[in-house]
Amino acid sequence: MNLNIFCYLLLACAVLGSIFTPHPIVIGCLLVNVLTLVIYGLDKMAARKAWRRVPESTLLMFGLVGGWPGAILGQQLFRHKTQKQPFKIYFIVTVVLNISAMVAIYQFLPFTQH
C-alpha cells in the first residue's frame, strides 16, 4: 500500500473512531496530534535510511486539520523539517489557517456558548 494513502487511512480511522467517544472533538484532536507526531518520526527515520518518504503535502495537511501541535513537537523532538524552506513558511500558513477556522467555528456556529 502507498505510504501516503496509509497515512490518510489512519487519519480517517482516528477521526471516525473518535465519533464514538463521549468527547469526540477532544479525542479526535488528541488522536490527530499523536498520529501527526508519529508520522513526523517515521518520516525522519525514512529520511535517514533512504526509504520512501511521507510527502510534504501530507505533513502539511495533517497540520492543517489540527495536528499542528503534534507537528511542532515532532519537528523539535526529531529535528525534522525545522530549517527547510519553503516548508517552514507553508507550515506556518497551515497553523494560521487552522486557528482562524477554529475561531470562526467558535464565533459563528450556534452550538457554542458565548
Task: List its salient traits.
114 residues; mainly alpha; 4 helices
Question: Mind sketching the topology for me?
Answer:
Layout: H1 3-19, H2 24-49, H3 56-78, H4 87-108
Structure description:
The chain has 114 residues and is mostly helical. It has one domain (3-108). The protein is 77% helix and 0% strand. The chain has four helices and no strands. α3 packs across α4 (87-108). The longest helix is centred in the first third of the chain and has 26 residues, at 24-49. The chain starts with a helix and ends in a 6-residue tail after the last helix. The model has no long low-confidence stretch (mean pLDDT 91).
The string of secondary-structure elements, in order, is HHHH
Hey, roughly how much beta strand do the residues contain? under 5%
Number of helices: 4
Shape: globular
Largest sheet: none
Number of strands: 0
Number of domain modules: 1
User: Termini separation (Å)?
Assistant: 46 Å
Approximately how much helix is present in the residues? over 70%
Briefly say what this structure is:
The chain has 114 residues and is mainly α.
